[in-house]
């Protein structure tokens, strides 16, 4: 008798199996293994509105994907699942208690504060995230906002469409002053994957890079100067947020810290909405205490219509899309698929609640 290993964790024995028989045996075992796992995606639309394939994950279990799931629907939809994937649908300790079959939570994002990771750990549930999939995309949005503000792109485009340039006597029409970013100081709060990518691009633009980080000078590129938060706020022309959301960093940008900034300062937030006290930032913009802000994230998403930043002076808002380029979402899908595969094979990667 020979022993044929046809897939991890399963073996078949046979006397001189033909290739066709071995192939069929392999397919049968894979199908048996697939059916033994129930995989539920609670909010798949944000990651995949239809331009990506779920095939890699589908092959690993009985697969169900929902575009969106309300908190009240989580338990009924995931009651039998041993694997649940979520982007922004929260999984609290109370919810986890009602999901007795659950053994794995795959967060389809880098931040995982939507999951009570300690409660999951106590119940023997592995929680993984997706690191470093969107660094280039988010950094790109930082500079999309910065360049829009520096060259006042939106306003100048609108003045052309409204006929102001056509009515002008000169070959050039300047609606408002514009400026170069070369030679300006950019202060990066948080120097992980995204922060370091922003630094690289800023350096290429000829900017002076300051960073508030726990890393030592010899751990940073030679073009980055580590400084205290107070120094960064006081000396930066551009302040961009890339730190995680914690109790310490919540409302990091507030009336006091804004008071340390230059009147010409620009604040950019592509990190987490609650890093900013939105009323304080709106007041500073409306009163001309800082120049402008570029924001891709808000404290509540979708926002309330009375969010103070929506109508604030010189505040440019994009709807949480910095992460969502096709390339970044494609990378996210591949990492999520590999995370599940590695978990099923017994060596979990990217686990955040070890």
From TrEMBL:
User: What are the protein's UniProt keywords?
Assistant: NAD, Oxidoreductase
Q: Which Pfam families match?
A: 2-Hacid_dh, 2-Hacid_dh_C
Fetch the InterPro entries from UniProt.
D-iso_2-hydroxyacid_DH_PdxB (IPR050418), D-isomer_2_OHA_DH_cat_dom (IPR006139), D-isomer_DH_CS (IPR029753), D-isomer_DH_NAD-bd (IPR006140), NAD(P)-bd_dom_sf (IPR036291)
Q: Report the residue ranges that make up the D-isomer specific 2-hydroxyacid dehydrogenase NAD-binding domain in this protein.
A: 143-322
Q: What GO molecular function annotations does the UniProt record carry, in alphabetical order?
A: NAD binding; oxidoreductase activity, acting on the CH-OH group of donors, NAD or NADP as acceptor
Q: Which domain of life is it from?
A: Bacteria
> What residues does the D-isomer specific 2-hydroxyacid dehydrogenase catalytic domain cover?
58-351
Family the entry assigns: Belongs to the D-isomer specific 2-hydroxyacid dehydrogenase family.
Q: What is this protein called?
A: Glycerate dehydrogenase
Task: Write down the species.
Answer: Barnesiella intestinihominis YIT 11860
């Amino acid at each position: 008798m020979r022993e044929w290993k046809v897939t991890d964790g399963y073996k078949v024995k046979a006397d001189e199996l033909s290739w066709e028989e071995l192939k069929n045996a392999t397919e049968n075992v894979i199908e048996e293994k697939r059916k033994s796992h129930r995989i539920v995606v609670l909010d798949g639309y944000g990651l995949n509105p239809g331009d990506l394939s779920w095939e890699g994950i589908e092959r690993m279990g009985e697969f169900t994907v929902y575009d969106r799931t309300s908190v009240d629907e989580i338990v009924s939809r995931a009651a039998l699942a041993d694997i649940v994937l979520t982007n922004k649908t929260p999984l609290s300790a109370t919810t986890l208690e009602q999901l007795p079959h659950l053994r794995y939570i795959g967060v389809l994002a880098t931040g995982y504060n939507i999951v009570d990771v300690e409660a999951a750990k106590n119940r023997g549930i592995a929680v993984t995230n997706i690191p470093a999939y969107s660094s280039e995309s988010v950094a790109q949005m930082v500079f999309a906002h910065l360049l829009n503000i520096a060259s006042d792109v939106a306003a100048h485009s609108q003045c052309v469409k409204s006929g102001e340039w056509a009515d002008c006597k000169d070959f050039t029409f300047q609606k408002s002053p514009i400026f170069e970013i070369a030679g300006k100081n950019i202060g990066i709060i948080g120097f992980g994957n995204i922060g370091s990518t922003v630094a690289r691009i800023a350096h290429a633009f000829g900017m002076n890079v300051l960073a508030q980080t726990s890393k030592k000078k010899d751990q940073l590129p030679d073009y980055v100067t580590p400084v205290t938060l107070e120094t960064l706020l006081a000396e930066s022309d551009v302040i961009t947020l890339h730190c995680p959301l914690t109790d310490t960093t919540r409302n990091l940008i507030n009336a006091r810290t804004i008071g340390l900034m230059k009147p010409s300062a620009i604040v950019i937030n592509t990190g987490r909405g609650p890093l900013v006290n939105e009323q304080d930032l709106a007041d500073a913009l409306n009163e001309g205490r800082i120049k402008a802000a570029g924001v891709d994230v808000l404290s509540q998403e979708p926002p309330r219509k009375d969010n103070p930043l929506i109508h604030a002076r010189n505040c440019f808002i994009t709807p949480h899309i910095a992460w969502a380029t096709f390339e970044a979402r494609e990378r996210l899908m591949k990492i999520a698929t590999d995370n599940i595969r590695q978990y099923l094979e017994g060596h979990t990667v990217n686990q955040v609640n070890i």
